[in-house]
TrEMBL record:
Signal peptide: none annotated. InterPro entries: Ald_Oxase/Xan_DH_a/b, Ald_Oxase/Xan_DH_a/b_sf, Ald_Oxase/xanthine_DH-like, AldOxase/xan_DH_MoCoBD1, AldOxase/xan_DH_MoCoBD2, AldOxase/xan_DH_Mopterin-bd_sf. Pfam families: Ald_Xan_dh_C, MoCoBD_1, MoCoBD_2. Residues 22-136 form the Aldehyde oxidase/xanthine dehydrogenase a/b hammerhead domain. Coiled coil: none annotated. This is Xanthine dehydrogenase family protein molybdopterin-binding subunit. GO terms for molecular function: iron ion binding; oxidoreductase activity. It comes from the Bacteria.
Length: 733
């Protein structure tokens, strides 16, 4: 028999693609229900203070308005304790909507209007009058730096003698970089549809990256048995981290449903998408010292990020500076400044997006100071060990990323002198940066079921936030059992399915994919056991002579359909469920993805307008399960990086403590005209240690390093070093 082409590694079209483009895919705010009520959130207009009174009388007179909930009129929820914690909660006391009369930030939900239609609810909400006692607030990170405190996360301990080595280094850089607040703004706004059934049974369609996290959250907050709460998220219109924690529309919708004993939907407006988590603003100081040949002697990375007054949000902001390059003398520090704002939240490549930006800009400054090509400087400081952990990398093809990325980009033709390359009145700049992201694996479970028609159904409670989870799990399952992808259905997005971690951190394929593979392998053994018991012809065939492929069990020029084997087994169905733990082979190693990003910018010499004309991103992420969906992930990450460099900035009026540009007209993100040619290269990387699949994940690595490469290219084009992001015309001119 000719061996069939494995499904893993093929650019399979998305199996959910047809449902999405034909409108068959339903999202959280689209599930119909007879008698469904609609909720509209009324938000605070002050940043800090106390609610003295909420006057809902005029709102309740509006025809079709059923109720108004506020802190004085709502069903019982838990007290100010840990019951509001969830799987992605930060240290502290999580936000509790409608808990009491305290106003903690501008935009805080203070009331929920429930009506027969969304339009009625929103109109009635505009009639609610709220009296406040206003208190002084602070929302400006730079104005509150003196009140910062050490982050509760464990920052790697100092190693070596930074001060001594930096003080005597032949070449040094001491620079401070500022990054802006950014909001996730996925295409689908957050929504929760709570379908109420008799006996307080709730079926909930929620925009989330973790159905079981939401189920557990509601179980604790409302004291509901888990078997009465089922959370579903069959389709998610983007999330980027915004769905890692249950957002406030979920408990509000449940409050209303429990109080009214009716089904309720709460959908947030685009403006209200700016009233919860975001990538936090940071101030980062980088000090690098090197010898005359560019070898790093000393690295210090001191960062301050903003957080709320109720939780200490931490991310891996400075660790990258202690692991990406080889250096024996490293000092890292990370502090937080509490402000009258909502708690920040993980956003695509949390920590690395901001931290590597600062590191890679500083490395470019070091290259310029030392008179060394930026790629060559990074080659000279390549690290095959993670200096923070003292462990070798399971694999690290970063040198190959430099080589292949530079060759594709044409880096050898770069003139090193700033302002030395031009096309007419446009200055041309070439910049580059390294990227790094951790390659994690979490515990996950999966169930595999083969029926008498030969159809394989695999399930796990993970979600698909647009990354291609439906598709890659189908490919993994098909190969593991030896069936065609057309004979596989993957079920996800349901809290009643086998346990899965939150979908984030680029570890879904590593974690859930490993569980799917193991479940199908165990099912294959079960199929073989059943076949040997049913078909005497197999009795003397050695195991090594039996293969599974194309829906058949093959042996000695013969084959038996898997459907025939299952049909003759007891019950006509074979199924298994397994719990997959992270591979023990990982423990002695550090595991990470890496990239090299090359960027060309064109800067109008008179106007200062910037256009990114070319990007090459070379990525080493282990085995790529689906090159098509993986490439899409990198393309999206690159565009996000361009936005971080040039566009995205959640602007706050600090006098009012209020976000100014809380819409997609004024919160700028890259559009088609802003994005030039983007080339993605997947560098071959064999890794038998990171997990059974050898796959590291690509959701985050596409973002990391892009903004720094853009900034470095702008310096090369103009000779101006901009250290505050995003880089806008006013800063450049």
């Amino acid at each position: 028999m000719n061996s069939p082409t494995p499904a893993v590694g093929q650019p399979l079209d998305r199996v959910d693609g047809v449902a999405k483009v034909t409108g068959q895919a339903r999202y959280a705010g689209e599930y119909p229900e007879a008698g469904l009520l609609h909720g509209s959130v009324v938000s605070s207009t002050i940043a800090r203070g106390q609610v003295l009174a909420i006057d809902s009388r005029e709102a309740l007179k509006v025809p079709g308005v059923v109720a108004v909930l506020d802190h004085a009129h709502r069903p019982h929820v838990s007290s100010y304790d840990d019951d509001y914690n969830d799987a992605d909660a930060a240290n502290g006391s999580p936000f509790r909507p409608l808990f009491n009369d305290r106003v903690l930030y501008s935009g805080q939900p203070l009331a929920l209007v429930i009506a027969e239609s969304l339009e009625m609810a929103r109109y009635a909400g505009s009639l609610i009058k709220i009296d406040y006692s206003v208190e002084a607030h602070q929302t400006d990170l730079l104005a509150g730096l003196q009140h910062s405190h050490p982050a509760p996360a464990e920052t790697p301990a100092p190693r070596g003698d930074f001060d001594g080595q930096f003080g005597t280094a032949a070449v040094t850089v001491d620079a401070t970089y500022l990054t802006a607040n950014e909001h996730h703004n996925p295409m689908e706004p957050h929504a929760s549809t709570v379908l109420y059934k008799a006996g307080d049974q709730l079926e909930i369609h929620d925009k989330t990256q973790g159905t079981q996290n939401c189920q557990d959250y509601l179980h604790k907050v409302f004291g509901l048995p888990k078997d009465k709460v089922r959370v579903l998220a069959a389709y998610v219109g983007g999330a980027f981290g915004s769905g890692l924690r249950p957002q406030y529309q979920l408990p509000l919708a449940v409050m209303a449903a429990l109080q009214l004993k009716r089904s309720v939907r709460v959908t947030l407006t685009r403006q209200q998408m700016f009233t919860f988590g975001y990538r936090p603003r940071t101030q980062q100081r980088l000090r690098l010292g090197a010898d005359a040949d560019g070898q790093l002697l000393a690295v210090a990375h001191d960062a301050i990020g903003q957080t709320s007054r109720i939780e200490d949000f931490t991310e891996h902001l400075v660790e990258w500076s202690g692991m990406l390059y080889r250096c024996d003398h490293v000092a890292l520090s990370y502090r937080l400044t509490p402000l009258d704002v909502y708690t920040p939240l993980d956003m695509r490549a949390p920590g690395a997006g901001s931290g590597v930006l600062a590191l890679e800009c500083a490395m470019d400054e070091l290259a310029c100071a030392a008179g060394i090509d930026p790629v060559e400087l990074r080659r000279r400081n390549f690290a095959d060990h993670n200096g923070n952990e003292g462990k070798p990398y399971s694999s690290k093809e970063l040198l190959a990323c430099y080589e292949q990325g530079a060759a594709c980009f044409g880096w050898a033709n770069r003139s090193p002198q700033p302002r030395s390359m031009r096309n007419g009145h446009r200055l041309i700049g070439w910049g580059m940066a390294s990227g790094v992201w951790e390659a994690m694996q979490m515990k996950a479970s999966a169930k595999a079921r083969l029926d008498a028609q030969g159809h394989l159904t695999v399930s796990s409670a993970t979600t698909d936030i647009g990354t291609g989870t439906y598709t890659v799990m189908t490919q993994i399952a098909a190969d593991a059992l030896g069936v065609g992808t057309e004979d596989v259905t993957f079920l996800l997005g349901d809290s009643s399915l086998p346990t899965a971690p939150l979908q984030g951190g680029s570890f879904t394929v590593s974690s859930v994919g490993s569980a799917v593979r193991q479940a199908c392998q165990v099912l294959r053994s079960k199929v073989l056991e059943s076949a040997r018991a049913t078909f005497p012809v197999l009795a003397n065939v050695p195991l090594e002579a039996i293969t599974f492929a194309e829906g058949y069990l093959h042996f000695a020029q013969q084959r038996i359909a898997l459907s025939d084997i299952v049909a003759q087994s007891e019950g006509g169905v074979l199924e298994v469920q397994i719990d997959a733990e992270p591979s023990t082979k990982r423990q002695p190693f550090s595991t990470a993805t890496h990239s090299a990003v090359f960027v060309e910018v064109e800067v109008d010499e008179d106007l200062g307008s910037i256009r990114v004309s070319r990007v090459v991103s070379a990525v080493a992420a282990g085995r790529v399960v689906n090159p098509k969906t993986a490439r899409s992930q990198i393309l999206g990450g690159v565009v996000w990086g361009l936005g971080m460099a040039l566009h995205e900035h959640t602007q706050t009026d600090h006098d009012q403590g209020r976000i100014l540009n809380h819409n997609l007209a004024e919160y700028h993100i890259p559009v088609n005209a802003d994005v030039g040619d983007v080339e993605v290269i997947f560098v071959h990387e064999q890794d038998d240690i990171v997990n059974e699949l050898g796959s590291k994940g690509v959701g985050e690595i596409g973002v990391v390093g892009v903004a720094a490469a853009v900034a470095n290219a702008i310096y090369h084009a103009t000779g101006k070093r901009i250290r505050e992001f995003p880089i806008t015309l006013d800063k450049l001119l």
